[in-house]
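Purpose: get a first structural picture of the assembly so the mutagenesis plan has something to point at.
Setup: two entries, given in the order below. No constraints added.
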Amino acid sequence: MYKLTKIESGVCAADGFFADGVSAGLKPDGAKDMAFIYSDTLCDIASVFTTNKMTAAPIRHFRNKGDFQTNFVLINSKNANAMTGKAGIEDIDEILSALPANITNPVMSSTGVIGVRLPKDKIISGTKLFNLTTRNSDAAAQAIMTTDSFAKKIAYKVELEDGSNFHIGAIAKGAGMINPAMATMLCFITTDADITKEEMQTLLNANTQLTFNAASVDGDTSTNDTVMLLSNKKSGIYNKEAFNKALYEIMTFLAREMVRDGEGATKLVTYKVTGAVSDKEAEVVAKALSNSLLVKTALYGEDPNWGRIASTVGASGAKADEALLSISFDDVCVYDKGNLYFDEAMEVKAAQVMKKDSFTISCDLGLGDGSFRAYGCDLGYKYVEINADYRT
Amino acid sequence: MYKLTKIESGVCAADGFFADGVSAGLKPDGAKDMAFIYSDTLCDIASVFTTNKMTAAPIRHFRNKGDFQTNFVLINSKNANAMTGKAGIEDIDEILSALPANITNPVMSSTGVIGVRLPKDKIISGTKLFNLTTRNSDAAAQAIMTTDSFAKKIAYKVELEDGSNFHIGAIAKGAGMINPAMATMLCFITTDADITKEEMQTLLNANTQLTFNAASVDGDTSTNDTVMLLSNKKSGIYNKEAFNKALYEIMTFLAREMVRDGEGATKLVTYKVTGAVSDKEAEVVAKALSNSLLVKTALYGEDPNWGRIASTVGASGAKADEALLSISFDDVCVYDKGNLYFDEAMEVKAAQVMKKDSFTISCDLGLGDGSFRAYGCDLGYKYVEINADYRT
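Result (structure tokens, whole complex):
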């Protein structure tokens, strides 16, 4: 038995963690563009990075360090430090070596435009503005935003049966370039739970599959995707089941928030696929649906065009049969095992569901026990506007 | 030695072929919506169909017939006869059995909305309007259009060294739902060349890979994709090399026309990938580029955002290395093996290329000899407008 209580203060919820965001002039409008997360004792780190082969410099820099503990993460937005070769790595070394002496093995993370060298001097000047005794998770969450329209944060206090407790909290950014091949975003999770490094990595991997890797905005995968879990063990308390549940809730919430904030998105849709021959095939179908342009534009048009859903299921590569397939919009079943009972009354009911900000499209393939849940959004004019003109 | 001469009259270019388009009231505005292709002698057929598992009724009907010759293809637009189960097959039987007695083993092909029964009576009435002595390939090409903004047709006279000749011509439709997994469209090719059925199928398969399967508008694959090649052998003439060249030219032209007419497209882009470890990996990269939403919106914005191209190459799954990669827009090289010489002057030059209606993006991976060429378009507001509101 354990109890999760939602609390404020994101990455500063856990004991001993500090964070803030400042403006270093990377964004043109004086908005916050640099953040730090600091722990007053050293942390173990678990991480999941992009599968993109054009891995950004900060990720290569992290990997080059091997096994280590840290007490500091430096994050900048506006510039991804990707496709910058050896110079990109050297820039990170120079920036991190300018940090104060009480910082150990600092880690850097970047997001923004690809193929431009970091404005090193601005970033080094920015780090001088950091006050390591500040607990402002919201400012940090704002500073890591790029095309995000709102900051993303969450935290839980986890109480065990004997009254002991630990904390876990997170901030994240991610709006476009969210893909099921790897959740394309930055996410930093901090905890004072007394968890081993090995278990941190195991639980982070497993929950990434079910959450960030099940979220899609536009099917692209970036060069900088990073999920990092830091633990300073300060609470001295740990319970695997409770920790895993809190981690799952945090990552599911952030994955859904990222999709909800998908570039130009107006709807958050859960694709619930059941009856596939395996969980893997259910995943293939759910991700095909969440990535289909024809489905996404139908969502935007609030058109219960179930034919496009059926066609996408068929095109996904997974085993499927029109005589066994059923499709529902929330609880309105529009196609049931070959029965075309999609009349005008049904269409009105289904269209009502589609007007909602958030709903579920269920596909039962009628073949087996495989199931998966993916999260997607619609695609409208705003997506085109944002992405046709991102750099200028 | 042989000579190809472009001629008029599309599917009626070959001896003994007739075609027309009529309005049967399927489209609301009195536009042509039914077409036929008729040969006054029986034809061998080669065909390539969709890989979508929700195969439309006309394709299942065709496959159920086994091996046969025909002299008649009936095509309707506006209704795909897909997801219509056994009833969809029975509807085709009823429609085809109402055709005149001089028609042998007729074949049906449909395109349009999924999940609605065919308006059988309207279609049967429509067939009464057909005049089998008409040679109006343009009317047939118009009748099979759905969201196409122009009709697609082409024909060649093929002359051999000894002065003998044969003909090959085609019509096609396809604007949205064009995917490299299988060119999503209808295409009918007729010839009087004296080619065997086996060779027809072999050459059709090979050229489909290089043409329709290399074209992408939005990454979706429909339930109705069909490429059909009909030969009545009337010329008595055949030469493999010449026929194959003419078939390749016809299919390449139509594939590019379909992409150029991609829903809302303003640009036709050729993705030329070289230096991959294999042709297969080059294909993976070229298709990833032609399908990437971030690349497509950058094209629409005429933004030479080569970082998105590099990121998409890296995300494709193919082997790639930023230190070996080069990227060019036509002959403007913007990234060369880790050299970031993308300054303002270069950006202006690259932006000039992107203003063109048609250009080539080349990616050399610097790893091996694998190459592939894919065709894609941009994605703008118009695509969203068309697809958010297709059914209404």
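Chain B is about 30% helix and 25% strand.
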